[in-house]
Design goal:
Elements: E1 3-4, E2 9-12, H1 15-27, H2 46-66, E3 71-75, E4 81-88, E5 100-105, H3 114-128, E6 134-139, H4 144-153, E7 156-162, E8 168-175
């Protein structure tokens, strides 16, 4: 299974093929992780960050794969690593039945339009292959690039959810286009 766009080839995450690039170009890049509080501790080593990423992401990729979701690895047609995008089960405190969209690009690809291109392909796959009626995205921090991306993809404000520590999570939604609605 793979998705092909004008400038990208998206394939489901494969640990043997993709883990080293995922860690090097995303997890260990302070620009990519600058909004992740758990990775901000300056005492953390690269090994610590890789172990944290393994504990957080690998079970998530496997669990979501069982639901039909894919953590899509983004590469150029020449095979150069670009990033990761996909749909996942929404974590608490948001939760719920609607899958959550996300996208991470290696810093060298920021501002190239590839996140929008990948996002459209991932969401279209959700509509067509999975028959989804709605996708959400959650913004946990004031990340202007993420907000521009989800605005370009057509997400709209839905609600704000707070965790036990009163941290705000802004939930945006994207409904399946009317032209794709399943007759019922």
């Amino acid at each position: 299974m793979r998705l092909i766009t004008e400038r990208l080839v998206l394939t489901p995450f494969d640990r043997e093929r993709d883990w080293a690039d995922f860690v090097t170009d995303l997890i260990l890049d302070p620009v990519v992780t600058r909004y992740w509080e758990d990775f901000a501790d300056p005492a953390l080593t690269d090994d610590d960050k890789e172990q944290m990423a393994a504990a957080e992401f690998l079970p998530w990729f496997q669990e979501d794969h069982a639901r039909g979701f894919a953590a899509w690895i983004l590469r150029t047609p020449e095979g150069e690593f670009v990033g990761l995008s996909g749909l996942t089960t929404a974590d608490e405190p948001v939760g719920g039945p609607d899958p959550e969209f996300g996208c991470l690009l290696a810093t060298r690809w920021h501002g190239s339009g590839l996140a929008t291109e990948a996002g459209r392909a991932v969401i279209e796959d959700g509509w067509e292959r999975l028959g989804l009626g709605r996708v959400i995205t959650v913004l946990e921090s004031p990340n202007p690039a993420s907000r521009r991306l989800v605005d370009k993809l057509g997400f709209r404000f839905d609600r704000v959810v707070f965790n036990e520590a009163s941290q705000a999570y802004v939930v945006l939604v994207l409904d399946r286009p009317e032209t794709m609605q399943v007759a019922g």
